[in-house]
Amino acid sequence: MNVSRLLLILVTLYEVSDAVVFGGWGEWGEWSDCSVTCGYGTIKRSKVWLKEDGTVFNYTYISIVECWTKVPCPIHGSWSVWTAWTPCTVMCGNGTRTRTRLCNSPEPMNFGKPCEGETLEELSCNELTCPDLPLNFNMDVCNDTTFVCHNELQCVEKFLHCDGELDCHDGSDEKECYRYLSMNSNDCVYISSQSLMLTLFGLLFTRTLQYS
């Protein structure tokens, strides 16, 4: 018989014979402390296998049970996402835009830490100098060919409405315009509602001719 094979058989027989140990389980040990100091955790206890001669064998039986500390864990605050930026407060003369966020995702509870940082952010906007108001203005000069500024202290020619340049002191001639961001720059292109309607009508008319 091969020597290495003989040694393998002997070791196997030794392990099997040693695994059969007569005896019984000992008494349960004390429960451990809860694994956490707040919220839910676990506690455990164990008992060992005792041989017939009373000595301990290396079998251990562990029992694990959920525990409640009766102390809720602190929940630390976390910020919500920022809101969208508000429109600029003015059309010219240095206004502000703001956005906000809340400490509610989640909000701090059970003595948790509050959010760190600001709830409000501000940006300067429309810093261009406003056009001057006309002296001795009289509303009688305004007619169907003019645009009355929202402050009613000035009127400008109607073709100046939404032309991309401020003409009213309060900037209202550029306030209610469609704005499109240029693909090649950060400049806004201003298109009046009248121009947009004419453009759409022209495209529709051209397309109708193509299919007629």
UniProtKB/TrEMBL annotation:
SUPFAM superfamilies: LDL receptor-like module, TSP-1 type 1 repeat
SMART domains: LDLa, TSP1
Signal peptide bounds: 1-19
Superkingdom of source: Eukaryota
An example Gene Ontology CC term for this record: cell periphery
Protein keywords: Disulfide bond, EGF-like domain, Repeat, Signal
Phylogenetic lineage: Eukaryota, Metazoa, Spiralia, Lophotrochozoa, Mollusca
Protein's organism: Mizuhopecten yessoensis
PROSITE patterns: LDLRA_1, LDLRA_2, TSP1
Name the UniProt record assigns to this protein: Thrombospondin-2
